[in-house]
Amino acid sequence: MTGDDPRSERASRRREGSGLSIGALRAFVGVVDHGSFSRAAAAMGVSQPNISNQINALEQACGARLLNRRSHDQSLTDVGRELYTRARLVISRMNDFEATARLFGGIKRGRLVIGFSTPPFTMPLIAEYRRTYPDIEIGTRLGNTQSLIRDVIECRVDVAMVSMLEPDNSLACHLLREQGLNLVVPADHPFAQREAIDVKELAGLSLILREEGSVTRALTEQALAWVGATPTTALVLESREAVKEAAACGIGFACILEGETGSDRRLKALPIRGFRRTAGVYLVSLRESAEIPALGAFLGLAGGGGEI
């Protein structure tokens, strides 16, 4: 039968409305272990009527007496003896579950999957997070902005650090920093003697472009459109590192977002003047995921501004 079967749903509602609760099982085991309702109530920190009500509800749910109330030590009936061991097993597993949940809730254990399109900004934060919360397991996923946003929505990652032109209103987006567009040139090219380059000079340059879906690609195309030009494409590559290697080899010039060139001495990054549009580095997650302690701690360490 499927989970949508009405009979299964009705049976589930009957169980929820019956005395088959973890509290009732704990009351039952407590009475047997302590030998009386009053001692079980004292040990569990509840009133004796509470214990009596729990036991009565459990017996009604089982359709049989579980305890011989006339015996001075509340001995088990035959049915009660059958269920006692099983009840202890259920309670033991529930205790294990609650202990594990407390560890996760206290950020002592857990797993956080981080997607990123911006390693220069993401890796220092991951390093700090690991130092602060060494018991949290970290998984990673590399991609471009478009693919990582999809991963967040489909719960393949808990949070993504990505460059975006605008925040996505359907998600929790925390702005960490703004990024302008840079032109990356070989260190031995005459352009490398400059401190910046005008956006108008991009027209006619042979450019190494990122793939469709990349924010760098979108911002590059917007810069060219600003001056009424279209890309002269030398090569299309799917990673920032590949773009940088191609530029260092003289295949063409490359537009890269500010702060992402790294310390490669073969290259120089020139700010593009005359084009004011910027991207931003954002931490992106589902709004409801912010309540996950491991993710909340990551957002706190990042120190991003408020949610946008």
Give a brief description.
The chain is α/β, with parallel strands linked by helices and 308 residues long. The chain has helices at 6-17, 22-34, 37-44, 48-62, 78-105, 119-132, 145-153, 215-226, 240-248, 293-302, and strands at 110-116, 136-142, 159-164, 172-179, 181-186, 197-198, 206-210, 232-237, 253-257, 267-273, 279-285. It folds into 3 domains: 6-105, Arc Repressor Mutant, subunit A, CATH 1.10.10; 110-177 and 281-302, Periplasmic binding protein-like II (D-Maltodextrin-Binding Protein, domain 2, 3-Layer(aba) Sandwich); 181-277, 3-Layer(aba) Sandwich (D-Maltodextrin-Binding Protein, domain 2).
Summarize the biggest pleated sheet. 6 strands, mixed
What sort of overall outline do the alpha carbons produce when their principal axes are compared?
rod-shaped
CATH C-level category of the largest domain: Mainly Alpha
Chain oligomer state = single chain
- In the CATH hierarchy, the third-tier topology of the largest domain is known as Arc Repressor Mutant, subunit A
The spatial strand order of the largest sheet comes to 6-10-5-9-7-8
**Rounded to an integer, what's the Rg over CA atoms?**
31 Å
Going by CATH, the architecture of the largest domain would be Orthogonal Bundle
- Helix count equals 10
Which parts are unreliable, with pLDDT below 50 for 5 consecutive residues or more? 6-17
Instruction: Tell me the total number of β-strands.
Output: 11
Number of structurally distinct domains: 3
Amount of helix? 40-55%
* String of helices and strands: HHHHHEHEHEEEEEHEHEEEH
